[in-house]
Specification:
Number of helices of chain A: 10
Distance between the termini of chain A: 26 Å
Number of helices of chain B: 11
CATH superfamily of the largest domain in chain B: P-loop containing nucleotide triphosphate hydrolases
Order of helices and strands of chain A: HHEEHHHHHHHH
Number of strands of chain A: 2
Shape of chain A: globular
Largest sheet of chain B: 6 strands, mixed
Radius of gyration of chain B: 25 Å
Number of domains of chain B: 2
Oligomer: heterodimer
Largest interface: A-B, 28 and 35 residues
CATH topology of the largest domain in chain B: Rossmann fold
Largest sheet of chain A: 2 strands, antiparallel
Structural class of chain B: alpha/beta
Distance between the termini of chain B: 35 Å
Number of domains of chain A: 1
Shape of chain B: elongated
Strand content of chain A: under 5%
Order of helices and strands of chain B: EEEHEEHEHHHEHEHEEHEHEEHEH
């Protein structure tokens, strides 16, 4: 195992994150604050409570998930797409580094960034609303698993993408809508019954629900189903990545 | 033997056959120049040896390590300077170099970094961002990145493409220094004077095939046609009959003769020519010979194979 290489990739990627601190750190704080002002304060003042929780607090897990999923995906995809785009990938491919080590470096860094942003949003949220976390260990577990699995998804997209447009396509057109429609800002039980069924096909529902359970103790779907969902998603991503590495798809023509 | 390439083939997904069964051996400490026109397969060969593309078939052994079975051991020995300038524009010189060393599993070595950067006249620029550097400096950063893990086999893919004369000379000096340290170097170029100036052996690639690989001197000898130019004391209006039948030409001003001969032949015909001249009573002022350059050899060879 070439730990030195994993470290090199990881810190090289993290350096990019800290170099663009404004973009990586300040923008999620500002957008989260805006969500709280608009959804929490303005709309929330007209909604009494959702499942016994104030609306402002209710949306916190969904807001964190929204940012964590989009950030993990875009960081994961950009990290590997950029070397591909500018050609520096030659260095990774000709170094004594296994695919697993490359993956560990890039996905590790992307997941760390997303986790960092998630925690920043949590801290920002705590300023606006009164928050209690009922199951902190489960909360961290869900958060970390989400960061890793979506960074893996991003990594796959980064390898798949042939241009910047494709790179943005999935985060914008798939991940964001799925998160918005995945019960981030509402409880599934608030939907008409037909939509309650349809929404169960949205994988994000399970993640948001499980994450919300770790905060408030109630969920749209049973907690073990949520755990199963996030674990299966991670496994699927790992299988795809393994296939990419074995075939050299879009890396080694 | 440091590098052994056996029957290496590479066919791209598009069906393009970039390498058609290339075999070659390179000794330790040798400088091998691979010559060939654009699209000949030089870069494909290097990319496949270095692990950037997967070979379709064949094997590559570097210092006893197979590049697919023992990829870690094999790659640790190899440094690669790519043809295109591929660097992260926002990174600092020092960071990008330390990154390269890290990829090869090596801890930071400040003394070595300073030594290499100084040698490449980059030490002053260590804290500059890549985008602030000139083209020549960027190319030297690529070389520094390839040298920072102390490779035993260095690939230089078109090291002096679009580089000014001064920088080209300094590159050659770097190559000479590396050779002194026992580094084996394989460089590709389409500048023949480059191969002529620094290589020990020359390989010629065209359309995915290695047409030949030979010592530079023996290659020049083997394919070199020589031209004998004889200046005469007095103007000659016409060539004597026994001379005009041979490969001898009289210049328009009648003051010199040229004779083209092949050094590969057992008899060059020079002795006969000179005695004929003497028998005809022609006095000579001076004699000189010219050897064809690698460039001419190369053009002839590629043409020959095409026919």
């Amino acid at each position: 195992m070439n730990f030195q290489a994993v470290k090199a990739i990881y810190f090289f990627e993290m350096a990019r994150f800290f170099r663009t601190l404004l973009q990586s750190f300040v923008s999620p704080v500002i957008s989260t604050s805006l969500y709280f002002v608009v959804f929490g304060t303005v709309i929330g003042s007209r909604i009494q409570e959702v499942e016994g929780i104030s609306y402002g607090a209710f949306i916190v897990p969904g807001l964190i998930m929204l940012s964590v999923m989009t950030q993990a995906t875009s960081n994961g995809s950009f990290g590997i797409y950029f070397p591909k785009f500018i050609g520096t990938i030659y260095e990774l491919l000709s170094a004594p580094v296994s695919y697993f080590e490359i993956l560990l470096g890039y996905v590790g860094a992307a997941a760390t960034k997303a986790l960092f942003i998630g925690l920043v949003i949590l801290a920002t949220a705590a300023v606006f609303v009164d928050l209690k976390i009922m199951h902190p260990v489960a909360m961290i577990l869900f958060l970390v698993l989400t960061c890793i699995s979506f960074a893996l998804l991003g990594f796959i997209l980064g390898i798949w993408a042939r241009n910047f447009e494709q790179l943005q396509l999935v985060p914008l057109l798939v991940v964001t809508p799925l998160v918005f429609l995945g019960g981030s800002f509402y409880s599934v039980s608030m939907l008409p019954s037909i939509w309650q069924t349809i929404t169960l096909f949205n994988p994000v529902v399970y993640l948001v629900s499980g994450f919300r359970w770790s905060f408030f103790g109630n969920a749209d779907v049973p907690i073990f189903v949520s755990l199963l969902a996030i674990s299966s998603f991670t496994v699927v991503c790992v299988i795809i990545v393994a296939w990419i590495f074995n075939t050299g798809w879009r890396i080694k023509q | 033997m440091l590098l052994e390439v056996n029957e290496l083939r590479k066919t791209y997904a598009t069906g393009f056959e970039a390498l058609k069964g290339i075999s070659l051996k390179v000794n330790k400490g040798e400088i091998l120049a691979l010559l060939g026109p654009n699209g000949a397969g030089k870069t494909s060969l290097i990319s496949t040896i270095c692990g950037i593309t997967n070979p379709s078939s064949g094997s590559v052994i570097i210092d006893g390590y197979d590049i697919s079975k023992n990829f870690r051991d094999a790659r640790k020995l190899v440094g690669l300077v790519p043809q295109d300038i591929t660097l992260e524009p926002f990174e600092k010189v020092l960071n990008t170099i330390n990154f390269s060393r890290g990829l090869f599993g090596r801890k930071k070595d400040d003394a070595l970094t300073e030594k290499i950067l100084t040698k490449l006249s980059l030490w002053d620029k260590r804290d500059s961002r890549i985008m602030e550097l000139s083209g020549g400096m960027k190319r030297r950063v690529l070389i520094a990145k390839a040298l920072i893990h102390e490779p035993r086999l260095l690939f230089l893919d078109e090291p002096t493409a679009s580089v000014d004369v001064e920088l080209r000379q300094s590159m050659w000096d770097v190559v000479a220094d590396l050779k002194k340290d026992g580094v084996t170097i394989i460089l590709t170029t389409h500048y023949i004077e480059e191969a002529e100036a620094i290589a020990d052996r020359v390989g010629i690639i065209n359309k995915g095939e290695l047409l030949l690989i030979e010592g530079k001197a023996s290659l020049m000898q083997k394919f070199g046609q020589k031209i004998l130019k004889i200046e005469l004391q007095k103007r000659l209006n016409q060539l004597p009959k026994d001379l005009s039948e041979k490969n001898v030409k009289l210049s328009d001003d009648g003051l010199s003769l040229t004779y083209i001969y092949d050094t590969k032949q057992k008899k060059t015909g020079i002795t006969k020519l000179l005695s004929n001249l003497s028998n005809s009573g022609i006095n000579l002022r001076d004699i000189q010979t010219d050897q064809s350059s690698l460039e001419e050899i190369f053009v002839n060879l590629v043409k020959e194979k095409a026919e």
